[in-house]
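request received
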Amino acid sequence: MIPASFDYEVADSAAHALSLLAEHGEDAKLLAGGHSLLPMMKVRLAQPAVLIDIARIAELSGIRVEGDEIVIGATTRHADVAESEVLKAEAPLLAYAALQIGDPQIRHRGTIGGSLAHADPSADLPMALLALGGSVEITGPSGVRAVGADDFFVGPFESALGPDELLSAVRVPRGGSVPWGYQKFVRRANDWAIVGAAAYGGRVALASMGGTPLRATATEEALRSGASVAEAARLAAEGTSPGYDFHADVDYRQHLARVLVRRALEGKAG
Amino acid sequence: MTEIKLTVNGVARSDEVEPRLLLIHYLRETLGLRAANVGCDTTSCGACTVLLDGESVKSCTVLAVQANDRSVTTAEGLVAQDGTMSTVQQAFRENHGLQCGFCTPGMVMAATSLLAENPHPTEQEVREGLEGNFCRCTGYHNIVQSVLSAADKLSGSSPAAEVPANGVTA
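response:
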């Protein structure tokens, strides 16, 4: 399968990428690793007239500590997030989540910014960012703005990112001693989660349980009120509206959410 | 058309390509390097795996223009000029790490990348390291043995022997 024709531009800085976006408008898409965008272009679910390659912009890549946060450049690849000693020590949930994505080849190409901007409700990193209470840094014509994970995901494959904006960095809290757990239920290696659950302290996030990654708010409230993990986990599916497919119907997904949230709150990763 | 300059199997190349040209098609059709195969064409099966700057990638999901200024290695490029196969290739031959052979070039490239990142993998790590490569003959056992044997030869010592408790993952 071959994508429809497009023009190809290489941006050499974030400012250059923004000016190219301004020039080409909504017909343009940003290309980093291309591991969400190119598969969509190959089956013509996406048909941008212009691709703006941001993968070679040095300022958009890398991992650094800044105060009580870790800042990850948008074009940092999943493999680099998974292997980062800083993240393994200070935000192990994020490093672990990155390692659950696809396979080694995909992790050599896919980027954290690309995955978050793609906003797939069943993907690993949106759920992880939501559990961590992280944020994204968005650079646009009028400067830089920060959007928390709770506000960034607005619908299936839809985020708060505007067509003239660039997701430039991701911020997660430093919390190496915060208890965490991560559960991804799949039928086959490589698949997206049929249901996913991530817990970080008292924050609990779910994948594949609605149009966006979701907080398990009833579970979180129960935990704050002193409920046991088992009691709180029984509330994990409240307020969720998962879809159904040949893998799982709604009831089964809600059952999985309760089981996986309990395991995640018990600190299990798998 | 966009001009690309890259190194393929150690040879400098320069070509005018359509931006939408996929790396796998550039390698197979433009350069005539037919080791990497088009399998699923959806980033799943790994038959098109090549090395980009030494790391495994699925060339059905990389544009040729994304390889500009970079280095690509295919299975052809693992063979020395005198025809000597690489240690990984030789290990696949000695351990009969193939049945029909369609997935083999991708398996060899994925294994080469895996051993560069982790020279002493356990059996479980080999299986997980090859999870992006499908063998539809399901001949995974000998493939895993081939990679463990290559690791052994490359390091000159035995990798940690480990029998996976939960069976096949690759």
